[in-house]
Specification:
single chain; alpha+beta; 36% helix
Length: 94
């Protein structure tokens, strides 16, 4: 199993816009082949910092999602809202 963490920092004017966008696409992401769950959390001590966590059956299926029209259209809408570049980590359980 692959766990994908993505840290995103948004401009103050775009917090609500991102949360609304995520609520629209989370069902589609969770329904993508190989995804077993997805969630959104926000940093308690630093306003505007969000983390998505998604769980994937394999690295190959995660990459298939990352190359999909769903990912590309979502990222196209999300990226302009950033205050700073996103950071991402793909991990697997030991």
């Amino acid at each position: 199993m692959i766990i994908r963490y993505v840290k995103m920092t948004f401009k103050p004017a775009h917090f609500m816009e991102f949360e609304a966008l995520f609520s629209l696409v989370k069902v589609d992401i969770a329904g993508f082949e190989g995804c077993t769950g997805v969630s959104l959390a926000k940093e308690i001590n630093e306003t505007g910092v969000y983390f998505t966590t998604s769980f994937w059956e394999s690295h190959e299926l995660l990459e298939r999602y990352r190359n999909s029209a769903l990912f590309k259209s979502t990222w196209e809408k999300t990226k302009p809202l950033f205050k700073s570049p996103a950071e991402a980590w793909s991990l697997e359980n030991c």
